[in-house]
């Protein structure tokens, strides 16, 4: 999926507010908290931003320093073209600060990772636009469906542009910073948010077309259940969006204990920044705290939704959907806690990210099972 691929491809954060310079970016206050047990994990994570230390897709997002929709599809072929591409990369902060000793072969590796990610994005764009144009020409689309299709194709293009806008923030020179060049966490969250909207809209359109609708009696209880399910889905969306800030600021590394944050339920640097609002988006401690609270609130809301749904007569498919939602939520929270306790190993973080899509999909499935039948 374009959304997920793009997001993975650029998951790089920016300067930590816990002043810290140099390539090893575990925030300074975190280092004391991690304690002796954190040593090996911390060392592993500190190496992580180095493309040679770990081929995580997220570390290659800044290797292609320009973007052309058509021209960008042709990779360099000759040695001379590769050298020219490498010289371009050398003008940007990631090379200057992090990868000064990178060889051409190593550059080719990260370049191809980003290239395949961008080509995947183009393929996803085509997978939307080509069938849409074909169906349109054949006259197979109803009037409302034409609106849906146009909106989805527009969102795909917007997603691509947003991806480039995000990457650009990681290419900018920041005169007084020696920190690892990273994309803005705001743009990262916007990119993930728009990816989730695109994904949700596509899934919703598909489910509306494919799933036969139930003729549910419009009781008071059903109305309440439907409203509750809508609110819970919005909460899941918000939790996922807050996860982008955690990933963007490497905030999964500031307190690696659960349920308490270090020794405390509410850490003392929660509001260390001024003005207070800035903490919500820029202080890794607050960002992690918010994500925990939202994650726990999501799973609590889903449990309550499940219990409430038991009192409402529902068709079999809707029952399966609500039970699955509870199961996926428990799994997702378990994955989130494990990611935190194990100092954010890449495979687990990636599974946790996919888990958020699985959770959102199941919530949308439930909404689709509960939707009002047309009169
Ligand atoms: C409904 C529950 C949850 C949802 C939907 C959710 C979703 C997400 C998403 C979308 C990300 C960004 C993933 C990435 O880009 O790598 C994320 C990151 C993260 N989440 Fe959650 N999360 C949930 C619960 C939790 C809980 C309860 C915890 C721990 C207490 C947690 C810990 C983390 C950590 C440590 C990261 C950072 C991973 C990284 O740096 O790559 N999450 N979450």
TrEMBL record:
Keywords: Heme biosynthesis, Iron, Membrane, Metal-binding, Oxidoreductase, Transmembrane, Transmembrane helix. It is a multi-pass membrane protein. One of its GO terms (molecular function) is metal ion binding. The keyword tRNA processing does not apply. Its main location: membrane. Residues 8-18 have a biased composition (Polar residues). It holds the Pfam family COX15-CtaA. This is Cytochrome c oxidase assembly protein COX15 homolog. It is found in: Membrane. InterPro entries: COX15/CtaA_fam, HemeA_Synthase_type2. It catalyses: Fe(II)-heme o + 2 A + H2O = Fe(II)-heme a + 2 AH2. The chain crosses the membrane at residues 119-136, 148-167, 187-211, 232-255, 291-308, 320-344, 350-367. Its cofactor is heme b. Pathway: Porphyrin-containing compound metabolism; heme A biosynthesis; heme A from heme O: step 1/1. GO terms for biological process: heme A biosynthetic process. Residues 1-52 are annotated as: Disordered. PANTHER family: CYTOCHROME C OXIDASE ASSEMBLY PROTEIN COX15, CYTOCHROME C OXIDASE ASSEMBLY PROTEIN COX15 HOMOLOG.
